[in-house]
Amino acid sequence: MHGEDGDELWCLRVAKKHAEEARRDLVGRGLLDRAHRPRPEGDDLLLPLVEETAGAERAVFTPFPRQEELPRHELVGGIAILQEEDREGAERVLHSRPSLHTVLYPTSPVEGEFRTREFAVLAGEETTRTIVTEHGHRFAVDLAHAYFSARLSTERQRVRSLMQEGERVVDMFAGVGPFAISLADLASLVVAADLNPAAVSLLCENTAMNKKKNVLPMLADAAHLPGIFGRTFDRVIMNLPMESSHFLSAAFALCRPGGTIHFYALQDEEGKYLDVIRALPAAEVTEKRVRSYSPAEWHAVYDIVVGE
Ligand code: SAM
Rounded to whole angstroms, how far apart are CA atoms 308 and 260? Predict the structure, then answer.
């Protein structure tokens, strides 16, 4: 039946505290009607169904507005990140894709040495942890405790496409390991360092989950790596866009002559770091725009071939 107040449908009555679990179960069984808004009733939530099932009852539900009216959001695995603190919109986003379990809103900028941010949960499960699938790899991420950006996946594939089989790679600011693990497919060894214990813990988990036996996770300050490894790497990844330039001489002390450093920087003018790079033994430098950061700033990558 279709009325002015909504549509009469089969539904399951569940206690609010078990609603998320029940919702996931119904999604898994293909029974949840995602076109209608679940209805609260006291301590219960009525979950609309696409057909009758054991224990179902009838109730009237309001349809969600059309999908294109969803608020703007970014997807990271099973998490959607909203740009506005819009709880009603968050519910609609949550119900728009069966793969989503949580909708977050950032309550702080990306900040501090670990480049992390704080979040409020607007809808779904109370978690900032999820699994991201990217080009055949799976990464456990925890957005509140370790940096991760899905927007760099194309850049990771670009770097991978430049590699020769058997290269020795060092990722100086590895985070949870998306560069390190992607490049480990072709490398003989990837040393992956980070200062953040939570990031290194996820990096270890991701190394195991992707069955990599050639990734060496390290809880270490990148500045100490040359003293441990010397100039033994064919490729160096430097993804600490606000401050990478402070570590350029350490990167040169890690990269063999003829090897390549990928230096990421946040900048507001073309070629901002060319003079700093050319003061070091760089044989060749190519600069590219990776993605915009604000109307006036963008993330650039400088591919530096190291000279003698
Ligand atoms: N490369 C990763 C990625 O693309 O997801 C993470 C990049 S994130 C922008 C920078 C990382 O560098 C953070 O995880 C932070 O904890 C780490 N970091 C900051 N200072 C560091 C240092 N001196 N040595 C090692 N890691 C550092």
Answer: 12
Dist CA 118 CA 106 (whole Å):
6
Determine the distance separating the centroid of ligand 1 and the alpha carbon of 264, expressed in angstroms: 12
* Rounded Cα–Cα distance for residues 38 and 26 (Å): 13
Rg (CA), the chain: 24
pLDDT at position 27: 84
Predicted model pTM: 0.80
The architecture in CATH of the region 73-127 reads 2-Layer Sandwich (3.30)
The atom number, within ligand 1, closest to the CA of 149 reads 5
Whose CA is closest to atom 21 on ligand 1?
Answer: 195
CB 169 within 8 A of CB 190: yes
The CATH topology of domain 2-61 is: Alpha-Beta Plaits (3.30.70)
3-state secondary structure of 135: coil
Percent of the chain with pLDDT over 90: 81
Q: Where in the chain is the domain with CATH 3.30.70.2580?
A: 2-61
Q: What is the pLDDT of residue 21?
A: 87
Ligand 1 centroid to Cα of residue 266, in Å, is: 14
Helix (H), strand (E) at residue 83: none
Distance 244 CA to ligand 1 centre (A): 10
> Whole-angstrom Cα distance, residue 55 to residue 221?
57
Residue 81 corresponds to which amino acid?
I
**Which CATH superfamily does the domain covering 149-306 fall into?**
Vaccinia Virus protein VP39 (3.40.50.150)
Pocket residue to mutate for ligand 1, from 117, 134, 147, 237, most atoms within 8 A of Cβ:
147
